[in-house]
Batch of 3 targets.
Target 1
Amino acid sequence: AALAFRFSYLQIKQYNHYQTLAENNRISLVPIIPNRGLIMDKNGVILAHNFFAYTLEITPAKIDNLEETITEIGKLVEISSLDRKRFKKFREQSHNFESIPIRTHLNEFEAAKFAVNHYRFPGVEIKSRLFRHYPLGKLGSHMVGYIGRINDRDLTNLEASGELSNYKGSDHIGKSGLEQFYEKHLHGITGFQQVEIDADGHAVRVLSSNPPIPGNNIVLSADSKLQEIAETAFGDRRGALVAIDPKTGEVLSYVSQPTFDPNLFVDGIDSENWKALNESLDKPLINRPLRGVYPPGSTFKPFVALAGLEAGKREPPYTIHDPGFFTLPGSSHRYRDWKPSGHGSVDMQKAITISCDTFFYGLAMELGIENLTGFVRHFGFGKKSDFDIKGEIEGLLPTPDWKKRRFKQPWYPGETVIVGIGQGYTLVTPLQLAQATAILANNGVAMRPHLVSQIQNTQTGKNQMITPFIQDKVELNPNNIAIVKQGMIDVTMPGGTAASVGANAEYAIAAKTGTAQVIGIKQNEKYNEHGIDERHRDHALFIAYAPAEDPKIALAVIVENGGHGGSAAGPIARKVMDYYLQGKLPTTETVKENKKLTGSAATNAPEEELHD
């Protein structure tokens, strides 16, 4: 009677409950990973794509003796020590019931050989997975970025954003560059299959299927050929280059040197390569355009000049007599000009052309630090640009309040003096310097810099264009900006600090050279780059836009420890502008010349270049 009552209760009263449990045991929900979107340059050249490959995977929870199983597998398919290390690392980051790759990229012979022996290895199976590949290798790697295996921090972020369910079955996620910033567009939407399984857990049939939606493709404003020319022009030197279309904010080239191969990170980088990259003195993993901070040196002077003109401190025909130094009232300390004998009579336009330090020392002092930094902030200095790669640094525009918070010290007049020539506490990123040059070329209109020009919907085929966006606009007196621009044009003319860069150019170039100190020198000591360690030498900087009358490209170049802007950074900029504006490729002679210039200081450079 008791048994009859219990049977009745379970089979009649609890029928719906146990039917649901039975159906859940019978049906398995299997995620279908979507194809990740492509990354292409402006001409359709593929920078990142996917391919299918066989992987051999182990589910640790289904295996009693893991080490013995791996050893036996190794008798059929080669398992290297690197494979074992990678498996151990992935296992530490995964749950015990998840399948973990022990070998990737199996060829068809290896896959077939294991398949006929599959019955011997419960808990081990062959899968076909999508892998990311970067066909151009190191080219543009800091721009494109890379994907890597999802870790605990990624899972936490996905859960917080409500995206975790869309990553069921996915192993990888964007870790840096555009791969990271446009992850939501590139990843796609995960699909699912309802699969009927038997008591042994084997699939019997597919009951229903909800196909995945592939990720969208992204198209860059950068040209891979221009990128190649720019990176090659650096030779083996460290540094950065950013080129922008002033009218739209589109980034045309984005260089961080040295670079690295993003393919190393896709399957999990091995310890040997990681150590080589992470411990290198050249810091190849640092995204220099965003995270490298440098004193702007004399490239800061055109913006200081504009601040002085707009404030009415240096209205034409104002001139000074430059004796080769500047002294503060009531002080005997001399702030030296790069030319010990001085430049004689100097007005604003000439001060930019010959890079007269004395002129800008006095101008900065009259403006005051608050007025100076407040004005140049409109050109993007001291703040993030809302760029479409994460990790941007703000740089630094110093103020008395900042110094008081940072050092618990007052601000001294001499600190204002050296800000006028881009030294002291002032720090900028290469992206900020390029953006500031683009704003100047665009007469005070700041367009948001961006790398992606359009997003292609892989379902509809429609393209979503990235609309140019005005971030800031400073009203400038046309006469004032004309003076600054003419001074920059004269920089590339005979007598200017970058005359060699403008030589034989078929278009007008407006530019400014710069040299930023890495270590200080004593008051009466002469700087001798050959007498100090290479990594302590001055940084070479160069900003330019062209054609000067109708700018289509604005750029900033920094060569770390390169010495002189006109001779080290200028030739790199010229090659980029020549190709972008005229389609000219560097000749064998210019490549050799560049190696000579970037390898050591140019001994035949004009006097202005050697001391700017």
Note: The chain has 25 helices and 23 strands.
Target 2
Amino acid sequence: MKTSIATVSLSGDLREKLAAIAAASFDGVEIFENDFLAFDGTPAEVGAMIRDHGLEITLFQPFRDFEGLPEPQRSRAFDRAERKFDLMQELGTDLMLVCSNVSPAALGGIDRAAADFHELGERAAKRGLRVGYEALAWGRHINDHRDAWEIVRRANHPNIGLILDSFHTLARGIDVETIRAIPGDRIFIVQLADAPRMEMDLLQWSRHYRNMPGQGDLPITDFMRAVAATGYNGPLSLEIFNDQFRGGSPKTIAIDGKRSLLNLMDEVRRAEPALAIDVPAMPDRVQVEGVEFVEFAANEEEAAELGMLLSSMGFSPQARHRSKDVVLWRQGGAEGGINIVINTEREGFAHSSYLVHGTNAYALGIRVEDAQATVARARALGAEPFEQKHRPGELAIPAIRGVGGGVIYFIDSRSELARVWEIEFEALPERATKSAGLVAVDHVAQTMNYEEMLTWVLFYTSIFRTEKLPMVDVVDPGGLVRSQVIESEDGALRLTLNGAENRKTLAGHFIAESFGSSIQHLAFRSEDIVATAAVLRKLGFKPLEISPNYYDDLEARFGLESSLLEKLKVFNILYDRDEAGEYFQLYSTNYGEGFFFEIVERRAGYRGYGAANAPFRIAAQKRAIRPLGMPKR
């Protein structure tokens, strides 16, 4: 499988783009004409620079408004094409993209267009060049790959072929199964782009909101299954027009692009086992069995403060690491339950994380079917491995780097990793504790800059058997926060990714003040939140105080029984309901610069996260946080 990406997909000048593309291990690059025109080197110098990076030019594009024109526009179109052929030969590429005509002067007609392409094919053949024809979704007469293929078929010239673009086909809802009838050798290149589902003008949708396969909502896998069935074995190229990408890191976007192609073709290979699909072998997406632990980095003083907060939620210190300053806090029993690790080491990665971010939840331990296979797949998809020296008697726990520079560890039941708490920790003397009825980690909320969200959506969905839910806007008094849920079908792993656009929001404040730390809150599940709240009160837990106005509105909206409403109000519990079930939420006050804990109860089939309550929760939290700009104590 040859991989390629268009220069228009990345930010920066042509040199920066090529460096990022090469670093991400692409095989080739599409040269978008504007990127070439803005460069201060000759075509020959550009071609040499590309080859010096170990890349080939898979396509020169775009050539616009060619077919079906009356005279004298028709003659001028052929003259323009000859000029582009000169340029292509100097660059060192043999394929040019011609997109379907959008000019008001275009006359239309399949035979007229086919005749134009036959003549263009004759001219290209004299130079050893090829031309690919692409149907733009908003083309004046040709906006469907089936019509474009008919023009190519009637042109009947070996130097004229079809270019398929997933966006143009899928945005119009064209049946992808029609692609299977096209001979693979008549497809000159396949361009890929995903996009979120949006009701808007096709041109605006395409020019501003495309993203990498797997980051959007279009059925890209179905499209590629149909392409693979044709026998096509040419380059797969990304052509992404996205305002966010144009302002992002070219290195990150290029890595995302390569990851998206590898993941996509792995999905196609598994869906079409009878086809010979050339894609690097890797383990399948991994089944997640739950969150095994969350680890905090802290110093001794702040660890004591965090321990007091955990104690007020019914946790107790149950084991100490045999050779490190690391303590395990637990609630919910030895089998399963919730494991919170506090690391106060003065060396190693945890200490470095503390120095950068302050006390923070820097590591997430995930329980999976096969830890080694998980890391193998992650590394095949370009994830950064994490390793640090381990002492005698310690396990080498497989891990990769995650959001905010943190760590994701993997535990499984098929190896000694299942005994990590027994092998690496020794039990502390039992002391009288009272469980608050917290049974598991319900979800983990990770906060990031909005520009990073698509990267981490692709990261999680390509490695684990998870799906993304539709993005929602969370209203903060300081602005909008974009939130997207990644979850496994059985709910064993639930992640809420929250993208902050400015530091006036609570999420933005957290990122700014913690210097990029990612996990902003942990949600623990209770089977009876009212009973839990009663225990927490006795343990000295201080809940986030919710405005009485909220409960007056709650009664009006849901018509709750007065006895339930009174309990919610007394314990500061928030409530939500959908067609499937009910949801209850109880929050801690802020810890540090915006970190907090949440306790939830899900009844019946409720699958949401109480998004309707977010504005009221955020308002209460912002009342308790120090004003922006004030110095830390």
Note: The first strand starts at residue 3 and ends at 6.
Target 3
Amino acid sequence: MLLDSTSTLAEQATAVPSFPPAKRTGAARVAKAVEVALLLIAAAFFALHFVHLRADFPNHSPWMDWAKYTDEGWYGDAAIRHYQLGHWYVPGDFNPAAALPVWPLLELALFRVTGVSVAAARALTVVVFGLTLACVYLLMRRLPGMWRAQRDQPEGAGAGTTLAPAIAVLLLAVSPFCYAFTRLAILEPPLILATLAALLAASAAGAAQANSPAHGEGVRKRAKRRGDLWAAALGLLLALMLLTKTTGVFLFPAIFWMLWASGGYRVKPFVRAWLLAGGVGAAVWSGYYGLFVRPRYLLDYRYLFSANGYTGVTPATLGSVLHDTLFDGVWIGATLFWVALAAAVGSLAVLCARRLRANPLVVALLLWVMGYAAFLAYHDNLQPRYYLVLAVPLTMLAAIGFDAVRAAAMGASSPGKRFRGVGAGARLLQLVAAIGGGALVFAGVNGARQTIYYVAHPEYTFLSAANRMHDEVEREAGGAAGHSPLLLSISGADISLMTGLSSICDDFGTMTLSDRLAVYKPGWFASWNYVEDDKMEALAPMYRVVRVASFPAFDDPDRNLLILYRLDLVGLPARGVGGRRRSLSVPRRLRTKLGEQPTAKQLSH
């Protein structure tokens, strides 16, 4: 009896609700038509993401994020260098691909077809966003609304229908926040996609493992084999999450819960699926670390964590950090954020009353939000791009919450539900549904208007600055024999992606800047607005820093002027600006094949 009841619970948790063909009339047909219309609008707005792919991150937006200057190049640098230099690794420089190889590998495959191109890299991340929208829809269809009233409504009340998946997809597609950040070739979009895919795999693996003993032996064996395949796929996805962005570990609790709940909250199916998934995931990650990282790139692997290991949280600042972490969520859209927060609080209250077993998806989304918010609070570096990882589950919660209230209001106000005391409750539910629906309509319309504005008013200040810098370097490089075209800049990797110039980073790297200068001898330096004191201190012993040109770019008052300097070696005759045109060449020091690069220890001698 217990096994039968738990398997039934698992089936209810993972099956799409159905109702007889005879009842597919009236409200059900209207709901289906509305869903199709919402999805068509979402598809149209998604298509707009492919327009003006080379344009700047929107200027004068609410989001001042450093990623628009650096991250596209940094986290795709391995793929960029592979095609520009013949290898991906530059010893002593910033090499994040040692720890985060998934995104550069995807770009590597793409660049083999398209060549190195910022438009191609951004097209890839837009495709990832499209797959994210598809996964959102499939996941919410597989695990529908959490109120049983939806399944129990009579004919004409919209029974068995849910608009939550289409609403969530539409809100994400029209979101200007998503438009701005899913068009950057950064790590957050693929992390979100991998997380959603892992939730789908966990739900399928758990459900397949929880078959009733009433089923035949052959059916049970086939189901277990199917469950094992899904569990193995889940393990691979968990490893990919960590190798895409290591903060994915904060999303694991949501996936564990999905596996536990979809298996009917039973220990044996959960343990079987989790041992297989955990084993596959550990094998993939350990194989990568043991065979690739540890023998050659351990220094770069560790450096990524040390460079990002800071936290500003102290007992004195904990309150303000938690406050900022929560309320900076308005970056996803103020109205949408408050609706999502209300839906999260309401869902948590309902789930607690039902011992967290009303709907596994809602619990998983809440764990997703709380897990990643915990990372943000600990890290205390509240860049807007980090909230992209929260925008997806919050939007899904807002859609689920509204649809649940709408369905409950319709069920409570139906003729079969009228008895003493229900009228006031029904009116309250209708009021809440009306307010929530109006807020979501406002959020969608306002977001669509802002997104259309960004599409219609593209700017190319950074791209123009990078291209003009490329022309200056090419024109000036021939003024002195052996003057290197290698560029030193914190935005150098982005400029490499846009123009093809070779570059190294002036800020991050396993070698000190002075050592990197001595080894690679760059010929050019690009900085934003001014030269920082520590950079000048490293440059002064070796170079005369000659200002060549400046290029307005972006709208950040601290970083809105990209200045190009020529680096003349001390001891050589001083040159003015100008000189014969000379073609670019790859520095001899960089002309090495994979595995031939000297180690940081060798370079220091």
Note: The two ends are 74 Å apart (CA to CA).
